[in-house]
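Bumping my old thread because nobody answered last time. Still need a sequence for this structure:
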């Protein structure tokens, strides 16, 4: 029997006992009151004692109810942190923990990448994409993986038991997935296009196993859609060479003026722009756009994060001083990498740039993602206390997706939390997410923090969030990330 079932049985049993005792005391009080009415000499203190017992039980009962409700909320939050709300599979963080028990010769791992996610999202929207993902997840589940996860928007990961013919199983599995999925929301079918990366030998650290599976996936994508590749060491050599080239190129990104900025406006409920977030892109000539997270990881790996980070602050403080002339009330948010915070000169650099551009610290916000705390908790806390003394604002990004969302809320001098978009998507018809977000907003407000709802895609989601009293909103419903020219036009246009 699971722990949760045992807990529920215990709660139900306690509630039954209370009802029996409570009913007995009520009957006893009724009896004594009747006797008091008949016999004026009965000891009145007995009735007072019974009444006191009854009131105590009422207090204990409601205290218990509140405790149970709190436990249920915590369970819901933990489930949200473990599971992807659309597919129902484990998220990446939880998968990395649970996969360790399967890293033996009995099992193999496959990464499954859905190729047409972006196209569906851009043409049909997030609601249809989610419906599509749900159908695919059901198909994956029907093949009985021992462990399954949704690693990101496009990629799934499964661990299977090895068969006498693994390749035959993989071929059959891929054929089952590659089909048209009927979506009642649009009364049409959409074809799913996949690529698979498979690693048969998974007796290693899970991070290494996943990296090898992604190498095989990349090799598969270099062939054709709807194909798979088994990992081999020669693939690793090719990928290592490609990473060397990227590391070489990233060292020259400043010199070649390849860092581009995009600006994500943030709005209040009156549709007024009150702040904006600075986003970065590596614009390599004649080469595809690199995933931003991967780009940042390259900057960290090569040590370029310090010089690029200072460049981001310097250039955007200059621009912000111009923007303030158009909209004096607007604020700016800049993301920081945890590696940057190890630079003991960063705070003095920020102060110098602020003074040079004649800016107020209270108008400037620095964001850090919740997952950063895994490896750099003490350094981050120390850095932000110093930054806070200077008057700057601090925001926690992607709130709810890390390992210990609540454990450090009282340890960091936060001003704002940004609720991750995975909580916001389809919140208008997801009661489960509504309860979680409602509690997060209430908790934040009780702690004196403002709340930003990320990834607002439609009016229905916005209405729910406004009703929950979220403070700030960002997402494609309001605006996509804009180039500087488009952002300035938006600021100068009549509201």
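Sorry it took so long. Here it is:
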């Amino acid at each position: 029997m699971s722990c949760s079932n045992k807990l529920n049985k215990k709660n139900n049993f306690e509630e039954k006992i209370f009802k029996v005792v409570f009913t007995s005391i009520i009957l006893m009080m009724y009896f004594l009151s009747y006797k008091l009415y008949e016999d004026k000499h009965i000891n009145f203190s007995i009735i007072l004692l019974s009444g006191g017992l009854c009131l105590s039980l009422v207090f204990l009962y409601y205290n218990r109810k509140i405790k149970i409700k709190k436990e249920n909320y915590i369970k819901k939050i933990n489930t949200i942190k473990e599971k992807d709300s659309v597919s129902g599979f484990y998220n990446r963080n939880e998968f990395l923990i649970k996969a360790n028990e399967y890293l033996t010769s009995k099992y193999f791992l496959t990464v499954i990448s859905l190729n047409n996610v972006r196209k569906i999202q851009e043409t049909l929207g997030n609601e249809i994409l989610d419906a599509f993902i749900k159908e695919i997840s059901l198909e994956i589940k029907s093949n009985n993986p021992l462990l399954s996860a949704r690693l990101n928007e496009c990629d799934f990961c499964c661990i299977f038991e090895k068969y006498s013919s693994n390749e035959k199983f993989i071929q059959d599995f891929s054929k089952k997935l590659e089909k048209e999925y009927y979506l009642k929301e649009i009364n049409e079918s959409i074809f799913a296009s996949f690529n698979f990366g498979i690693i048969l030998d998974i007796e290693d650290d899970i991070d290494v196993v996943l990296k090898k599976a992604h190498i095989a996936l990349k090799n598969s994508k270099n062939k054709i859609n709807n194909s798979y590749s088994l990992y081999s060491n020669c693939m690793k050599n090719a990928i290592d060479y490609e990473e060397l080239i990227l590391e070489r190129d990233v060292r020259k990104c400043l010199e070649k003026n390849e860092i581009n900025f995009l600006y994500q406006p943030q709005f209040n409920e009156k549709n007024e722009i009150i702040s904006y977030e600075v986003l970065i892109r590596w614009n390599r000539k004649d080469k595809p756009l690199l995933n931003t997270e991967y780009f940042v990881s390259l900057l960290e790996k090569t040590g370029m994060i310090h010089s690029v980070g200072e460049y981001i602050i310097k250039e955007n403080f200059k621009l912000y001083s111009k923007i303030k002339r158009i909209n004096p009330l607007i604020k700016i948010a800049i993301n920081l990498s945890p590696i940057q915070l190890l630079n003991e000169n960063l705070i003095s650099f920020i102060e110098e740039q602020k003074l040079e551009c004649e800016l107020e610290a209270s108008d400037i916000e620095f964001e850090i993602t919740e997952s950063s705390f895994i490896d750099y908790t003490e350094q981050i806390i120390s850095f932000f206390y110093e930054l806070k003394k200077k008057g700057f604002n601090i925001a926690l990004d992607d709130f709810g997706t890390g390992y210990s969302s609540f454990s450090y809320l009282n340890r960091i001098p936060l001003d704002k939390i940004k609720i991750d978009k995975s909580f916001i998507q389809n919140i208008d018809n997801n009661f489960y997410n509504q309860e979680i977000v409602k509690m997060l907003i209430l908790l934040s407000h009780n702690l004196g923090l403002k709340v930003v709802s990320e990834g607002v895609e439609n009016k229905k989601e916005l209405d729910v969030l406004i009703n929950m009293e979220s403070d700030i909103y960002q997402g494609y419903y309001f605006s996509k990330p804009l180039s500087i020219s488009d952002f300035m036009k938006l600021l100068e246009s009549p509201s």
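The first strand starts at residue 107 and ends at 114. Let me know if any region looks off to you.
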